[in-house]
């Protein structure tokens, strides 16, 4: 039974019916000497009690199992090498099965309690395998010149990713330098000038020919000053310097015109103007045709320049690309990428040389423009084996990778160089370890991991788009093939929950590897655990531990396992104890750790977690906690409980009382803890089992004409577990029979419907709790505990308790049945029967049946029980007097007859 800390205290009420109130006998008379058979000497215990006492008493040598120091190394420096799979052969066999099967879904869930060292064991096991496995390929992302939004993923042999990245970086540096030199050379400038001069000459000839044609129509070709646009105008509209040649001709024409008649001149001007407009319009059309021809001429010139640029770029770049192409000639994907870079550099050579485009300019802290950058996602050293990765923060981004973005002047941008690898990328081709609870804590992490393992591809997706439902543009990198074994670490309860709540969980994680909490305690396993200690000591650079310290640690590990024949495998507890023991050796200026340092470390750990325990003992000292470790009481038992709070756990006795209400009900038992929602389902189950047992005992002999109630006094927190079933049965039967129970004893145990006592948990803490209470209130030599016999093999008691048992100051009994427990607690025989198959009157069950009958008779007559008892005694006295009187009369008659003779 587990009980929470006591919040406050409460005194028992005094106004309870005499029949049902627990009767406390203040005189501490031993039960062994009080309850006897009527036919036996009252100064001696009942023979049945003596037999049970002798049979159930546990010897001191059974209370703890000690380790032999002579079979252990002198100190941990001479310990054997650590076996990685010590104590976990079942789990490692499951791992082997999963690793040997390459089919989809054969990933592993490693189930076991936290602190067992699952991650350390699996990591070492996988690293041992990984060393001999072929190294997986490297992966890089590069710019896709065909579809820039979809970067290309390229697979390369191990070690080649960084080589490609370095080669492309050097290529860019050399290409930039060589192209700049070529495009600034005199040869390049002369070729450009030649192209431009040829084009200019052709343009001049075309304009001269068109100008000559225009002169036939008295039109001159000129260029407008505003926009340098070509146009035809009358020579008179030309600037003065252009019109000097036509001045005299114009003067003659003017003087001739003035001598003509007025009406003739008017008609001639109109016709001349109309004719000039037609001619000008014609020449403008010819000018438009020439403009188109000149544009084609310019295009041809530009094409010639571009052809020159490309020709120069090809000749300049080809020698730079040749070594790289030769280096990666056996990788088609890389060759295609190099060809794409070559074509792109040739096409955009002007931007490269001029640096007038951000795409061809390296970013801050970068040596290569993102357009030509090789983003290494995974890189492995050749012959280094496969990776073993543990991701301690398995978010969606950290698992599957992500694409970063930057904001410049309010604009969000990204490129191939901002793609970041996830844990799946790093573990690709190897093994990935994850804490299952951590994966489930982060949104979309489990969904992303499951999708990747099912599809066997790593596809980067924008989590922001998934969460915000926006349509913002982002990169969609090409998926990468995934070949990985994932090992989830978690407790067994989480595994069952995932099986129930996640329909596809079993399809993805088909192998379960169970890690054991403890191992059998044999000499071989003790030596293996010493090897584990030595490994931890070497890793943490602690002082060596001698064999006395080793034995103390092994005994403590048995205590942690709560079994003499088992050793706990919890690595966290062992590591903590090793470090604290090492601290005490250092403080004592010792260079080796011995048993005293380990004992001091254990004591310190108990003290740190004993705050609540000390509060309880303070209440016990002050009388606030009502616990009797002497005397006797009816319907009252000291039950052994364990208080668990956070990392603190300690045992303590709790007073359990039973009250009987005769002639009310039909054997119902009120569980007060359950009715006020302070009792758990297991506690309620124990109550129902006990009720069924009592009904089976007495209902065949007499109707159960009573009701009862049970409660843990001064308990105000949740109670669960069935370890109080035996103590509840003892308290109830004591109240039914009105037989006192020895308060020098405390009891714990579960029971079944057949009255058999079953094992319970926390047995060592429970015994220690009652022993401390007895020592606090004074040892009498009569005190002890009654526990299930099945728990005896789990005893790893403190040395001071064992010393008290050896001295006879404290006793520990192990029982198989409730009858043995009641005999020890009451001193009475319990269920012996007479020849008629009925319980004997001097037995506990006989007394219970007698009280049931008395209650029934009292209900019929309506007389109080005390009056009925007094009447019976008076009738017996009268009958006895009558028999004595008749006997005397007979004796006198006989004497008179003899005298007459």
Automatic annotation (TrEMBL):
SUPFAM superfamilies (alphabetical): P-loop containing nucleoside triphosphate hydrolases, Ribosomal protein S5 domain 2-like
Any coiled-coil regions, as ranges: 280-314
UniProt region (Disordered), positions on chain: 237-270, 859-901
Domain Lon proteolytic: 650-828
PROSITE patterns in UniProt: LON_PROTEOLYTIC (PS51786)
Compositionally biased tracts (Basic and acidic residues): 892-901
A GO MF label: ATP binding
Keywords: ATP-binding, Coiled coil, Hydrolase, Nucleotide-binding, Protease, Serine protease
Name this protein carries in UniProt: endopeptidase La
Organism this protein belongs to: Psychrobacter saeujeotis
């Amino acid at each position: 039974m587990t009980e929470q800390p006591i919040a406050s205290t409460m005194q028992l009420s005094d106004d309870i019916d005499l029949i049902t109130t627990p009767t406390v006998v203040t005189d501490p008379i031993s039960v062994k000497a009080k309850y006897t058979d009527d036919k036996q000497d009252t100064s001696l215990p009942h023979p049945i009690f003596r037999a049970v006492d002798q049979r159930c008493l546990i010897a001191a040598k059974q209370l703890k199992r000690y380790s032999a120091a002579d079979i252990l190394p002198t100190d941990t420096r001479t310990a054997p090498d650590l076996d990685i799979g010590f104590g976990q052969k079942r789990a490692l066999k499951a791992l082997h099965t999963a690793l040997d099967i390459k089919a989809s879904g054969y990933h592993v869930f490693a189930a076991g309690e936290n602190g067992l060292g699952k991650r350390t064991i699996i990591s070492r096991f996988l690293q041992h395998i990984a060393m001999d496995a072929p190294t997986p390929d490297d992966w890089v992302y590069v710019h896709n010149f065909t579809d820039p939004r979809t970067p290309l993923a390229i697979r390369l042999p191990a070690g080649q990713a960084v080589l490609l990245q370095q080669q492309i970086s050097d290529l860019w540096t050399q290409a930039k330098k060589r192209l700049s030199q070529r495009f600034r050379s005199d040869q390049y400038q002369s070729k450009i000038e030649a192209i431009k001069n040829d084009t200019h000459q052709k343009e001049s000839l075309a304009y001269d020919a068109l100008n000559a044609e225009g002169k036939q129509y008295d039109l001159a070709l000129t260029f407008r000053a505003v926009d340098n646009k070509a146009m035809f105008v009358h020579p008179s509209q030309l600037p003065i310097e252009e019109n000097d040649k036509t001045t005299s001709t114009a003067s003659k024409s003017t003087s001739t015109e003035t001598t003509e008649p007025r009406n003739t001149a008017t008609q001639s001007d109109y016709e001349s103007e109309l004719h000039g407009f037609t001619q000008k319009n014609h020449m403008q059309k010819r000018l438009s045709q020439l403009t188109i021809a000149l544009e084609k001429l310019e295009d041809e010139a530009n094409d010639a320049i571009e052809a020159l640029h490309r020709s120069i770029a090809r000749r300049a770049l080809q020698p730079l690309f040749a070594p790289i192409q030769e280096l990666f000639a056996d990788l088609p994907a890389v060759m295609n990428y190099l060809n794409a870079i070559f074509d792109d550099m040739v096409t955009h050579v002007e931007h490269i040389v001029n640096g007038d485009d951000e795409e061809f300019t390296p970013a801050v802290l970068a040596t290569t423009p993102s357009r030509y950058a090789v983003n290494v996602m995974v890189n492995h050293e050749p012959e280094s084996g496969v990776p073993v990765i543990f991701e301690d923060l398995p978010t969606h981004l950290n698992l599957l990778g992500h694409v970063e973005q930057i904001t410049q002047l309010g604009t969000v941008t990204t490129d191939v160089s901002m793609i970041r690898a996830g844990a799946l990328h790093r573990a690709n081709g190897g093994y990935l370890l994850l804490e299952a609870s951590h994966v489930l804590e982060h949104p979309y992490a489990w969904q992303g991991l499951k999708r990747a393992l099912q599809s066997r591809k790593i596809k980067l997706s924008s989590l922001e788009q998934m969460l915000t439902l926006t349509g913002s543009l982002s990169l969609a990198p090409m998926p990468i093939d995934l070949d990985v074994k994932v090992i989830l670490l978690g407790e067994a309860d989480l595994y069952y929950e995932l099986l129930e709540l996640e329909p596809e969980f079993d399809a993805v994680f088909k192998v379960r590897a169970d890690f054991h909490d403890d191992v059998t305690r044999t000499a071989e396993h003790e030596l293996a655990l010493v090897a584990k200690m030595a490994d931890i000591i070497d890793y943490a650079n602690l002082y060596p531990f001698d064999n006395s310290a080793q034995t103390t640690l092994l005994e403590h590990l048995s205590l942690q396992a709560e079994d003499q024949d088992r050793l706990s495998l919890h690595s966290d507890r062992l590591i903590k104890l090793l470090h604290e023991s090492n601290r005490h050796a250092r403080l004592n200026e010792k260079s080796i750790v011995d048993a005293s340092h380990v004992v001091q470390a254990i004591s310190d750990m108990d003290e740190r977690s004993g705050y609540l325990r000390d509060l309880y003992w303070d209440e016990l000292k002050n009388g606030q906690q009502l616990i009797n470790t002497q005397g006797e009481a009816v319907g009252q038992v000291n039950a052994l409980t364990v208080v668990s709070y956070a990392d603190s756990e300690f045992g303590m006795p709790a007073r359990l009382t039973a009250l009987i209400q005769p002639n009310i009900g039909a054997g119902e038992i009120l569980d007060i803890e359950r009715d006020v929602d302070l009792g758990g389902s297991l506690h309620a189950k124990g109550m129902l089992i006990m009720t069924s047992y009592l009904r089976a005992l007495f209902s065949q002999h007499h109707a159960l004409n009573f009701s009862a109630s049970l409660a843990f006094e001064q308990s105000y927190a949740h109670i669960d577990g069935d370890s109080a079933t035996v103590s509840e049965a003892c308290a109830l039967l004591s109240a039914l029979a009105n037989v006192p129970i020895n308060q020098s004893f405390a009891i714990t145990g579960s029971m079944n419907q057949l009255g058999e006592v079953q094992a319970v948990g926390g047995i060592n803490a429970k015994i220690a709790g009652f022993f401390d209470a007895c020592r606090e209130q004074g040892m009498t030599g009569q005190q002890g505990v009654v526990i299930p016999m099945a728990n005896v093999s789990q005893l790893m008691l403190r040395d001071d308790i064992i010393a008290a048992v050896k001295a006879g100051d404290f006793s520990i009994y192990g029982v198989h049945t409730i009858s043995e427990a009641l005999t020890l607690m009451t001193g009475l025989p319990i269920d012996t029967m007479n020849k008629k198959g009925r319980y004997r009157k001097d037995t506990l069950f006989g007394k219970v049946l007698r009280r049931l009958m008395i209650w029934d008779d009292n209900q019929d007559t309506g007389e109080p029980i005390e009056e009925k008892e007094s009447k019976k005694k008076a009738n017996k006295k009268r009958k006895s007097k009558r028999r004595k009187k008749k006997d005397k009369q007979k004796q006198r008659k006989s004497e008179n007859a003899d005298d007459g003779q």
